[in-house]
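Appendix C: a fully annotated inverse folding record. The material below is reproduced so that readers can follow the format used throughout the book. The structure is listed first as tokens, followed by the designed sequence.
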């Protein structure tokens, strides 16, 4: 019983408390399974094995986790069509009126809105069982511990990790990457070593490596991009073969271009050179089925707030073999086995990396968010977003003077549409869209090297999620046209 081991692993939990906690977990799970809508989510792992085309140019339809058009159509037109209007009712914020118009929230790549289930669970936690975890021998502490560990188990199931002990709770993607850079990186990266990144990384997957490289005297090597926003696979191969590469770190899905990268194939190539791979999955886990055992990545990072969960909670997945070798990242309470005046010993993972009181409410809220997206089904979400993205490309593509960045075929990318209209500044565009109740992001999207590659200082970005509909895309296209008229494009 794995869960028994995690609870028992807490050195400040007495044997009595451990057996109480085990009983609490059992009764908690029983209660959850009785409640409708709280059943253990079905696996979202795709079963279809897609053909490998690496090396060489990758057909985007073969990228792992991306359903073919036929599959997506089947989900949309299958027995249970995706009912976006029903989904919209789950999100209280969508009732807001902004500047006299209903809120059209098209900034989910920055953060997603929260369904009532998640908001209610946070309230229920604070109203009914708020207590610290892994240390109390009393009822509500045991309930909080059970819910916290249940959330960890749900996340492990969502991404098909081998064990919940491979799931570390952190603040978000940024902290997860910093954890790997500081713990694994400082142990394994030395003078003259190389780290491969890509030119489409978010700053949070660049800056931690720059800090590490400066400290250790290592080099960063970037995989370049084609004009339509795909990785140049030859760059990757050349860097990998140049020797001395100790890590590959790359985004699964670009937060600016929507490109879905062939992570599985990159992992396979990197592993041939004995090189581990970190995947920034901030923009993939919320939107497409992700299976860490199939990808075979060594590390994977994502944020709860981008998948219907609360802010301040995120996940680092790491293979058990890596975690066992990694030193703690933070020191403090609850991560220790024994502390003496001059030395201490650590608990096993995941606790070794969760010093101090963690974001308990956040983890429990994220567990609820995992239930929510799992019940919708990651493949259904992917299919819905693809239809909206194709529709948006079609509608926006007809606007005079527009330039959409990234893959030309919207059927091969995620639901992120970055554009510029003539020489209208992205901030002006976003301000005009806001007048029409439309929320989009403008700026460099924390991807300045990518902006440099595109030859622009900023873009306007619309990004879709489970609750967006075609009417909102129509409003976006009309509002962009209005901006064009105002700026005489
Ligand atoms: N990696 C990617 C690919 C991201 O898109 C983001 C956030 C992060 C890492 C960092 O996540 P955090 O939760 O730790 O902040 N991206 C965005 C965005 O595109 N607009 O606002 C935040």
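Designed amino acids, in order:
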């Amino acid at each position: 019983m794995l869960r028994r081991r995690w609870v028992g692993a807490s050195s400040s939990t007495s044997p009595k408390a451990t057996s109480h906690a085990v009983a609490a977990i059992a009764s908690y799970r029983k209660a959850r399974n009785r409640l409708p809508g709280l059943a253990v989510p079905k696996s979202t792992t795709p079963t279809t094995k897609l053909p490998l085309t690496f090396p060489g140019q990758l057909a985007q339809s073969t990228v792992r986790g991306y359903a073919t058009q036929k599959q997506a159509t089947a989900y949309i037109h299958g027995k249970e069509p995706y009912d976006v209007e029903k989904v919209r009712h789950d999100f209280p914020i969508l009732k807001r009126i902004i500047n006299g118009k209903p809120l059209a929230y098209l900034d989910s790549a920055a953060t997603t809105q929260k369904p009532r289930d998640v908001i209610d669970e946070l309230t229920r936690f604070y109203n009914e069982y708020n207590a610290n975890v892994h240390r109390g021998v009393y009822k509500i502490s045991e309930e909080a511990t059970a819910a916290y560990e249940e959330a960890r188990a749900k996340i492990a199931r969502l991404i098909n990790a081998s064990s919940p002990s491979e799931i570390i709770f952190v603040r978000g993607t940024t902290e997860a990457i910093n954890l790997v850079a500081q713990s694994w990186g400082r142990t394994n990266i030395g003078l003259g070593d190389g780290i491969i990144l890509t030119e489409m990384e978010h700053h949070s997957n660049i800056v931690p490596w720059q800090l590490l490289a400066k400290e250790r005297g290592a080099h960063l090597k970037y995989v370049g991009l084609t004009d339509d926003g795909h990785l140049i696979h030859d760059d990757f191969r050349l860097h990998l073969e140049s020797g001395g590469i100790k890590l590959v770190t790359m985004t699964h899905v670009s937060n600016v271009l929507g490109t879905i990268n062939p992570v599985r194939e990159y992992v396979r190539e990197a592993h041939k050179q004995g090189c581990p791979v970190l995947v920034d999955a901030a923009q993939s886990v919320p939107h497409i089925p992700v299976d860490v055992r199939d990808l075979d990545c060594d590390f994977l990072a994502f944020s709860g707030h981008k998948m219907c969960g609360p802010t301040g909670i995120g996940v680092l997945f790491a293979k058990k073999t890596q975690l066992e070798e990694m030193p703690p990242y933070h020191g403090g309470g609850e991560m220790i086995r024994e502390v003496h005046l001059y030395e201490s010993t650590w608990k096993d993972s995941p606790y070794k990396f969760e010093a101090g009181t963690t974001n308990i409410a956040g983890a429990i809220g994220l567990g609820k968010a995992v239930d929510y997206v799992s019940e919708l089904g990651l493949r259904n979400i992917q299919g819905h977003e693809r239809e909206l993205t194709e529709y948006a490309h079609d509608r926006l593509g007809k606007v005079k003077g527009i330039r959409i960045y990234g893959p030309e075929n919207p059927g091969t990318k995620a639901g992120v549409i970055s554009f510029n209209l003539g020489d209208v500044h992205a901030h002006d565009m976003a301000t005009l869209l806001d007048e029409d109740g439309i929320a989009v992001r403008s700026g460099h999207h924390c991807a300045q090297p990518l902006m440099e590659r595109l030859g622009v200082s900023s873009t306007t970005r619309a990004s879709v999620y489970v609750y967006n509909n075609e009417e909102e895309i129509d409003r976006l296209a009309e509002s962009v046209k209005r901006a064009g008229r105002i700026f005489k494009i």
